[in-house]
Write a structure and sequence with these properties.
2 domains, DNA-binding, 3-stranded antiparallel sheet, Arc Repressor Mutant, subunit A, homodimer, 196 residues, coiled coil (chains A, B), mainly alpha
DNA sequence: GTTAGCATGTAAGGAGTTACATGATTTT
DNA sequence: AAAATCATGTAACTCCTTACATGCTAAC
């Protein structure tokens, strides 16, 4: 049942598991994380937090020490929140590998088993593969684009998705062989000196 | 004043400039074009078409020949629609190089002057550069991520954007040198005979 | 004959943005 | 002193998706 809106919820739950935080801070981290696209607004975040409060997934505490700064509302996860987070993270299925959701899941992969990780990575990969196939198929029907720019855009798009597929494959292999180190460009030997 | 919703409008206008089309067909092309992400639904397209009809940007014609298939409503651009398309395509500024809009502009670059193309490409590039800088800056403050997956996601994200910046730079160079051929893997010699 | 794909729409609802509103604190 | 940034919120609005509703045509 995880709809699109649960994206923020999952992200907030995940971030709060790394430590209590107030809204403003949360927003910055969120933007850094999923903010490759557009920025999350307060009008989006605060209502989401209120909703999570109502659902007892998080609780607010106003720090009571000698304040030098403005009263900030610090949020932390409740036990119920932890449960919910685990539940969401163990979900395998479309919701886990759709564009937006995937990044969030991946970001918090440390909180799940390798088994789940593999399933999500593989799901994501075949999702992208399907997309590639569909485009290839439809491209044959549409008769190779006459327009230069259209063709270039198409080419670049395909290339990007193919790259992503390779990235996922490397991650899958790394998971399978129980490796720690994610691929990284190429560093067979720890490279003593590389002037940027 | 171009808001987000004008994205569909621009795309439809552009596609219809390549020939009259009915809604269903339009949707397929649209999905192929901007559909790297999620699919456009009918509930989105048809109301948009109605709105454009009301604005006299397009007009519908029901083909009257001996029908073998269901009556399809074929749309084509009006003169006003052509004007609007030109206007939108010559806009330079944030709306032209935001994530969603950029692809559409690029797709129809053939319909604009090199001057506009260059400005949009450069705008897009500095937009991405800013983003990169912001992440780099904030990354320094947050103290290199402790989490493996978080770090890998960060790395991959940065790499992707850097790739995109290089792509744009190549396109800008190609525009500047009045070249026809977009970078394409490797085609050094202009190949005197191009069959197609 | 029935499934899959073509074809066009509408209504309700969700998620998030913009703009508004307010005020403290830190830096220049 | 002014400007930037920290900090929290609300209301209106927009865009889009989901689900529903309908019916034709081609293929199996």
């Amino acid at each position: 049942m995880a709809r699109r809106g649960d994206t923020i919820e999952l992200a907030v739950l995940g971030l709060l598991h790394e430590g209590p935080m107030h809204g403003y801070e949360l927003r910055k981290r969120l933007n850094l994380m999923l903010g490759w696209g557009r920025l999350l607004s307060y009008g989006s975040l605060y209502p989401a937090l209120k909703k999570m409060l109502r659902g007892n997934l998080i609780e607010e505490t106003v720090p009571s020490g000698p304040q030098t700064r403005r009263q900030r509302i610090v949020y932390q996860v409740t036990d119920l929140g932890t449960q919910e987070f685990s539940r969401l993270m163990s979900e395998v299925g479309p919701t886990a590998w759709e564009d937006d959701n995937f990044d969030i899941r991946f970001r918090f992969f440390s909180s799940t088993d390798m088994e789940i990780r593999l399933r999500v990575l593989e799901g994501r990969r075949s999702r992208l593969q399907e997309r590639l196939d569909r485009v290839q198929r439809e491209l044959m029907m549409t008769q190779a684009e006459a327009d230069r720019y259209a063709a270039e855009l198409q080419r670049h798009g395909v290339e990007s998705v193919e790259r992503e597929v390779r990235w996922l494959s490397e991650l899958i292999n790394a998971e399978r062989s129980g490796q720690q180190a994610p691929p990284g460009p190429e560093t067979p030997t720890p490279a003593p000196s590389t002037p940027s």
